Amino acid sequence: MTTAKTYKTVKVEREEGITWVILNRPEKRNAMNPQLHYDMLDVIVELETDDETRVLVLTGAGDSWCAGQDLREFFRALDDKPAERRRAGWASQEWRWRRLFTFPKPTIAMVNGYCFGGAFTPLIACDFAVAAEDAIFGLSEINWGIFPGGLVSRVLADAMCYRDAVYYILTGDPFDGKKAAEMKLVNFAVPRAKLREETIKLAKKLMEKNPQTLRAAKEVYKLCRTMDYAQAEDYMAAKGTALRATDPEKGREEGTKQFLDEKKYRPGLGAYQRRAK
Ligand code: ACO
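That is the input. Now the predicted structure with acetyl coenzyme *A docked in place:
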């Protein structure tokens, strides 16, 4: 099923709980122009509260995932238009980082091809990344006479080890999906022919879990990383209480009952049996 809304630069397709968000400028290798930033911001805001979306997969049309910022339309064309530059720049940061990083359901970057420059921000904002073995990644900014800006250098510090990050920022050398998996920039890489199937497998695994708990688990992990120990301890205690109070499935009680009283499952080995709401 496809959403009622249509966008110039993005396609949205829904299938059994997975919403496929497809960057759709294949003729420009899905480079991000201002229109794409506005479209993506709208798409993500809509999907945050869309009941049919249980897992979001971000991918690209054609042979590219995303060729980074559009050098013609996002950079050169806005050089002498400060107001438009600011507006497009804000939308660009808002969807690629803030909204995607805190999206209330699990997100998977399915990297089907080129991933350059500014594309590293949404890559790292997604909870998971799965790549085609032959996908090509590159921090190519150095080749353009710029450095990885926006938030790229900052998010790289979270997602790559120090030596690898400095190496690729300064050389601009491209690397493939296999290497990205070896460096843990992506969770795993698979032959291109299996990419969709393996992504669906991961999405289905996530859909077996309690959605409220998934949301809380990602929020807690992502936010705690920049807190000190006292703040993290207090925040997690409060968040745990909030989760118990707001979880419509009452997952904690249900899981405990199924393990201790009904002896139906082993929590270390799989999700508790969720009942239809
Ligand atoms: N910005 C603007 N246009 C782009 C971009 C981009 N980032 N990437 C590709 N395009 C356009 C090309 O200009 C070309 O347009 P045209 O048909 O009007 O001439 C079209 O997409 C196809 O590009 P080709 O280079 O012909 O495609 P090919 O498949 O041979 O190569 C590749 C693809 C490797 C992605 C190449 O286009 C490339 O190196 N692009 C730049 C990638 C990059 O360095 N991005 C980082 C930008 S800086 C930043 O994001 C902060």
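The chain has eleven helices and ten strands.
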